[in-house]
Amino acid sequence: MTTLTEPPVGAPALGAPLAGPRPAARRLPGAGTVLAVLVLAVVAVAALWPGLLATYPPDRVDPVAALQGPGGTHPLGTDQLGRDVLSRIVHGTRLTLVLGLGSVLISVVAGTVLGLVAVAGGRVLDEAVMRLTDILMAFPGLLLALLVVAVLGPGTTNAMIAIGAAAAPAFARLVRGQALVVRESGYVQAARVLGTSGSSVFLRHVVPNALPSVLVFATVHTGSAIIAGSSLSFLGLGPQAPASEWGAMLSEGRDYVDLSWGLGVFPGLAVTATVVAINVVGTRLRRRFEGRIPDGDH
């Protein structure tokens, strides 16, 4: 009989740390996520307490100071009416977020209702809802929103409805797919075998377990909704003057960019930074909740 004096090939040496992933380390947010959270924190402060960041009223007109470049008493310069650009961006944060988040809320509610109705209503209703979503999703989202605004007219509320209606079909398909997966999962089948009513199974198991993926998708979609809202405002179909909104600011200042470059840069940077930060956080949430979304193997 021989005595082993060395570990087998490939085995870790005595006293050596075991190789493998460290869950705690993997859960630590990266620098990009931390920066994104900080950006969103600043955006939240600007939306809730604009007076903490703005140095002037957003509608204060000063013709003498019109089209000044960044610096001095106006860190980001002034527009064609002498209004402080920084103050207008800060005060425009709330309206920009209301437009984006409001449209996402409409999308979530309408899409969730449609998706759950399709699952609970039987084969005929399911087929009808899915064909309707196919038709609506055949149109580009912004084009569909433009059509809705053309019917309803410009304004903040109508823009929210338009953007929300354009994105609702995607949410409906997502909810339907997740609900079908949950409905066919093992624990739902077990509940049915034990005699639980169909409505109770639907409300207690199918609906709650289908919602996490909807919330993650809503977070990721918020950035797209903000871009769509700013696009409608840029075209004059969103909030109307003299309201401060980032897309509207870009539209108002586009004819004066040669005289004051900040009018075309800073509102655009505000949109870009906010959307990128939301997408980073949304991607992080999606990766975190991927393992919790039902996959039908339970």
From TrEMBL:
- InterPro entries linked: BP-dependent_transpt_permease, MetI-like, MetI-like_sf
Task: Please indicate if the UniProt record lists Endoplasmic reticulum as a keyword.
Answer: no
GO BP terms:
transmembrane transport
**What's the protein's topology in the membrane?**
Multi-pass membrane protein
Compartments it resides in:
Cell membrane
What are the residue boundaries of the ABC transmembrane type-1 domain, all occurrences included?
93-282
Keyword annotations from UniProtKB, A to Z:
Cell membrane, Membrane, Transmembrane, Transmembrane helix, Transport
Which domain of life, per UniProt? Bacteria
Write down the Pfam families for this protein, in alphabetical order.
BPD_transp_1
- Provide the transmembrane region boundaries: 28-49, 95-120, 132-153, 214-239, 259-282
User: What Gene Ontology cellular-component terms does the record carry?
Assistant: plasma membrane
Main localization is membrane
Q: Which PANTHER family match?
A: OLIGOPEPTIDE TRANSPORT SYSTEM PERMEASE PROTEIN APPC (PTHR43386), PEPTIDE ABC TRANSPORTER PERMEASE PROTEIN (PTHR43386:SF25)
- Give the protein family: Belongs to the binding-protein-dependent transport system permease family.
Query: What is the name of this protein?
Result: ABC transporter permease
Which species is this record about?
Streptomyces koyangensis
